[in-house]
Structures are given as C-alpha cells and as structure tokens.
Design a protein that fits this description.
Elements: H1 6-18, E1 40-44, E2 47-50, E3 55-58, H2 73-83, H3 94-106, E4 112-116, H4 119-134, E5 138-142, H5 160-163, H6 174-177, E6 180-183, H7 188-198, E7 202-208, H8 223-233, E8 237-242, H9 253-258, E9 268-271, E10 282-286, H10 288-291, H11 310-322, H12 325-348, E11 354-358, E12 361-365, H13 374-378, H14 382-394, E13 397-398, H15 415-433
The structure holds pyridoxal-5'-phosphate.
C-alpha cells in the first residue's frame, strides 16, 4: 500500500499559490479522479518514486515518450555527452541532422522534417504549411482527437479537454474556430458531406493517425483510405498526427503498423513524444516539394529559439536507436499481459468494460460495447474508472489520471513490474464495482 502523501500535499498547496491549479498541464491536477497528485522525485526503469518515498509502477510513461523506460543508460550517456558540450547554440548542429535523418529513414513518405519543441508546435506549423500550400483556410478535424492546444484545433478536443468535459475553450476567437469543421470520427458519410459543401475551401484534414486522446479508438477498416481518397479528390492535404503513435506503434509509427502504401500515404506527418526521449523535441515533415514551401526556401514562416536543441535531439536519437524489433515485441506482450489480466478481474467483479488497442497502446473503457467515436467514449462510467484508478494508486500503480487516455508501457517493464500491476488488479476491480451510493 502507498504510504503517507503529506509531502505531495504540501507541495501542491504551495504550488497552487504560484501556478494555476498547482500544475503545468491540467490533467496532472487529478481533478477527474480526486485525491492528491503525486509529486515525483525520481524515476528509473518502470518505477516512479514520489517525494514521500512511495514507489509506483508507471503506466503513464510521461504520456508516451519514455518508451525505453526512465533514465535508460544509453539515453543517459547520450544526454550527458551532449550536455557536456553545451546546452543550446542557436546555430545548426550535428545532432539535429542525425535525428532528422533517422526520422526520414524510418517513415518512407517523409522526405524532410522541420524540428520544433512540442507536439503543439508541430501541428500548428503543419496546418500553417497546409494553408500556405493550398491557399485555402478551412481545416477538418475529428471530435475527440487532440492535436495540442492550437487555437484552431481545440474544438471538441480529446485529452484534458475531454477529461474536464469542456465543449470549447475560452480565449479562442471565433475567427480561428470558425475555420475549423469538426466531424465525428470514423464517419465517412460526414466527411463526404463536409467536402460536398466546402470542398474547395478545405486546406487539410488533420487526424490522429490512430486516436489515443479520447481513449484508444483505432480507425475502422477503410477509414484511413477514405480520408486519403476524399482529400485527394478535392485537392486538400491529409495531415497525420503521429505525435502519440509515432515510433510507438511500430518503428515507423501507425503508418508502419497499418501499412498504408504509396499513394495512400498522408501528405504531412507530425511527431513528438518518443522522438524526444523525454526532452522537448517534436517535428513535422512530408514530401520535399511541400516542405520546401517553408522559410528560408519558401514563403511560409516558422521558427524556434530552441528548435533542434542539441541535448533534446541527442536524447531523441538514442531513444529511436533503442527502439528495436525486440522492444516492440516486448511492448506488445507486456501490454497484453496487463490488459488481459485487468479485463479478467473486471469481468470477475462484474464491471462492464471494453479494451481497445492500437498496437501496444490500449485503453479500458468502463462500458459495454465497442467505442468508435467521441460520443461512444463519453458514454462510460467515469466514476468507476476513478475508483479503479485510486485503488491502483494506493497499491503502487500509477495509471493515467483520466478515463480518456491510453495506458503506456515501456521496454523496462519487466516481470517484477508486471506482477506488481497484476497483484493490484483484484482489489481495484472490486473498488470499481462498488457503487458510491451503496
Ligand atoms: N498531438 C497528439 C496526438 C498528442 O497526443 C499531443 C499531446 O498529447 C499533441 C499533439 C500535443 O503535443 P504536446 O503536448 O507536446 O504539445
């Protein structure tokens, strides 16, 4: 059982005086699940240790980046080596070329990438490029997909926006949101109808390659192909947001996993998380003719003081180099061991649930039946999830503190860590089953 959390509580109380809600990203505040967010002091392999000395098996993995586990020796060595030579130059440097080369090598349709510092910047820049390239302004996005906190993309967004049930976000002018068309995910007819009405005004469709921010909701068979066919027919670009799935679902991300080929490939991709190895590095990329429209070669401006940072790119490159076929096989078997055991215990406790997958990414929805879009995802028992979450936390397993997120495992999740998770499941399943009003 987890011990005292008094130091985390003290830190939170102080943090709230100097930072809104005491956190630097809303979901970390635990508002959806209740209780005290744990302030983590250090992490090694699959384990987190909080400021009170409690240990947890980590199933957040920093929301995806820590695919090799925390403080992996090869990544640590690369970071220390890079840091020993300086932190940031504001000039071109070798590591950024090496990281770009590795991304281009892995994701076949990507001929060039531009490095940025966050997934939000990657999607924001990809959209600007799509608008610049097409001379059109409208963007299609899908309800429940999250593409970072870009003004135009926050409508009906997943992740924290879903966690807090915000329909829209204050501070986004109508002029930005008005250019965004939000459609239900996995609905080809809705897409056809939107293009029938606005086809020659739509610059791009942006989609999570396989959504993970309303929980894991993979594309139905044929949906990705339909996105490609309809955008091509109307001269719009297809932007595949692989910030979460990139280099996690396979060595070439969801693109490699789903096996789109040749003409089915998206025009632009966005990446983040794994490619930064836990440091702020992200990217957008695609065909050289499109990417050539960016400054300094072309008219679409985009820049960043810390873009291509030498330490972040060293961490990202070492992480990608560590992502071998064996690592992907381990992620799959580990994720299945945990999800299968969780599902068995929930079934035993009589808790309705559905497990959904995108390669090794998975979510447990606390409802019966498949989840194909955001409306389905919202139709679940989030109270049951909260009870389950807190019972797992009490027993030293840190799940993502929201029912609308993927669970993540790493190469470092060994037998001991998996056994620790599995041991915690029966009590958590019973807690999920217990009605709050009984
Ligand atoms: N796109 C997707 C699919 C994401 O999952 C996220 C973050 O979770 C983002 C974009 C935004 O990335 P960042 O938080 O690095 O700005």
């Amino acid at each position: 059982m987890s011990g005292s959390t008094s130091k985390s509580a003290e830190l939170l109380a102080h943090a709230r005086t100097v930072t809104p809600g005491g956190v630097n990203s809303p979901v970390r505040a635990f508002r959806a699940v209740g209780g005290t967010p744990r302030f983590i002091r250090e992490a090694k392999g699959p384990w987190l240790t909080d400021v009170d000395g409690n240990r947890y098996v980590d199933l957040i993995c920093s929301w995806g980046p820590m695919i090799l586990g925390h403080a992996h020796p090869d990544v640590m060595a690369a970071v220390q080596d890079a840091a020993s030579r300086g932190f940031s130059f504001g000039t071109p440097s070798e590591n950024e070329v090496a990281l770009a080369t590795e991304i281009v090598r892995r994701v076949e349709p990507v001929e060039q990438v531009r490095l940025v510092s966050s997934g939000t910047e990657a999607t924001m820049s990809a959209i600007r490029l799509a608008r610049g390239a097409t001379g059109r302004s409208k963007i299609v996005k899908f309800a429940g997909c999250y593409h970072g906190h870009v003004d135009a993309l926050l409508a009906a967004a997943g992740s924290g926006v879903a966690t807090f049930a915000l329909p829209d976000t204050a501070g986004v002018p109508k002029s930005s949101a008005g250019e965004t068309i939000v459609l239900p995910y996995n609905d080809v007819s809705a897409l056809e109808a939107a293009f029938a009405e606005h086809g020659d005004e739509i610059a791009a469709v942006i989609t999570e390659a396989s959504p993970g921010n309303m929980g894991v909701v993979p594309p139905a068979p044929g949906f990705t192909k339909a996105l490609r066919d309809i955008t091509t027919k109307h001269g719009a670009l297809l932007v595949s947001d692989e910030v979460m799935t990139g280099f996690r679902c396979s060595g070439a991300g969801w693109f490699g996993h789903e096996g789109q080929q040749g003409e089915s490939a998206p025009d632009l991709f966005t990446f983040g998380k794994v490619m930064g190895g836990g440091f702020p590095a992200a990217a957008f990329g695609g065909r050289a003719d499109l990417m050539g429209m960016l400054a300094p070669d072309g008219p679409v401006y985009q820049a960043g003081t810390l873009a291509g940072n030498p330490v972040a790119t060293a961490a990202g490159l070492a992480t990608l180099q560590g992502c071998t076929d064996e690592v992907y096989a381990h992620l799959d078997s580990t994720a299945h061991a945990i999800a299968d055991a969780a599902s068995a215990e929930l079934t035993k406790a009589g808790v309705p649930h559905t497990v959904q997958w995108a390669s090794s990414m998975f979510s447990i929805f606390f409802r019966d039946g498949a989840v194909t879009n955001y409306d389905d995802a919202k139709d679940q028992d989030t109270e049951a999830f909260s009870r389950f979450f807190n019972a797992m936390l009490d027993q030293g397993v840190h799940l993502p503190p929201s029912a609308y997120e993927s669970w993540f495992v790493s190469a470092s999740h060994d037998d001991e860590a998996v056994a620790h998770v599995i041991d915690a499941l029966p009590a958590a399943a019973r807690a999920a089953a217990a009605s709050t009003d009984s």
